[in-house]
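Appendix B, example 12.
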Amino acid sequence: MRWIALFLLCLLLQCTKPEQQTASTPKVMLAIFAHPDDEATVSPVLAKYAAEGVTVYLAIATDGRYGVTDHAKIPAGDSLATVRAGEAKCAAEKLGIEPPILFGLHDQLKMGEGMAPLNDQLITMRIKIEELFTSLKPDVVVTWGASGWTGHHDHRLVSTVVTEVFQTQKWDKPVQLFYSAIPTGNLPASSPMQLATVDSSFLPIKISVSEADYATALASWHCHKSQYTPETIEGMHQLLKASLKGTAYFMPVAVSTVEKHSLF
């Protein structure tokens, strides 16, 4: 089974030939999501690759200032945004990854203020993501697909802008973009959350995650105290485990180099 695991690692992280690998060129993974705590959707994978020596970065687009909960009793605004920034740093430490890169954009991207403020937020997001592609030179970028897992508009927009930047040019490294997803049919019927799923035929990348990876992920989830009670975290963690069954699924965003003159 070890050779299978190595093969999957190479597939996700675009392994080079042995003679091309040097200590000066470590593999780099960049995960980009909308809010502090969104990384929980892939945190076992982030923990897995960090433990294997991959340099893992987490970028978070918005400040989460509207994530008000009854149990935390923190009002919406700057105070909550500050708390959530600290929680994101805690989660990154638990996962063993680099400190989070916080764009500091407004939660909900100022949608309620009209098109001009929303467009300004999206332009800033695009610039910041392009800067990360240029400065970090990731081998792999991970985000959500079109649904954003939950259908949240911030999630969908982050996915769209990440994909846009990825497709603008041929980057220095052979960077590959992957969407994280739950296969259709895997979500338990009793799930209290209606998550969007993807047919398994679109998810050829299957990464095994261990109980140790799940344990690290759970520890990081507990950092997000402003958003969840310990009981809620445990329930959502078990839901994720039941849905993924020890495997994390990804859809590669295909890049074709074959020129054609017909769609058929």
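Residues 26-252 form a domain with the Rossmann fold fold (CATH 3.40.50.10320). Residues 115-136 form the longest helix (22 residues).
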